Amino acid sequence: MTSITTTSRSAEGQTGSLIVDEGGRLIVDGAGRQAGRTWVMFLIAGVIVVLDQIVKAIVVHSMRMGSSIDILGSIVRLTRTQNSGAAFGLFKDGRVAFIIVSAAASIAIIVLRREIARMRSWERMSFGLVLGGAIGNLIDRVRVGAVVDFLDIGVGSVRWPAFNVADSAITVGVSILAFYLIFRADSHPASAPEDNRER
Description:
single chain; four-stranded antiparallel sheet; three-stranded antiparallel sheet; 5 helices; 7 strands; 49% helix; disordered N terminus
């Protein structure tokens, strides 16, 4: 099989190879393949941030603090609340600490994007959920000093702490990562991008 190989360099200085085989198919190695593996993560994060902020804005502008709207009877309600702690109302009154934690988690995921690019697709999507959720709640903490919560689930007086879209994204993302860590630890790791080479 014949092929034409050219070398490209990313904006970050990492070299990659563009290979065109005799069938006209383009094969991307190195930096190009890593970028292709992380764009979905950042897309998911962006969607979560936008959705989270839009829904919160609707709740803030249409509901008074503490008011509720029944969705499925009393089992599922929209109840406008504010939370200065962690997800689901845990560890209240820690605004500065949670701003630092949220910012650090978001920066860490972005900095480690090359390592994340080598992971399985579901793991990369999970990091996107966590990143989007962390940024969504970080915006609230910086802008108004507390997170807007509104999803209220329970039976009668037995209620789960109110939460929001960002909390849900973080919970789902962390749960998927934990599942892979616990139950897929013995599976083969995703193959790393190939070293630069000519064919």
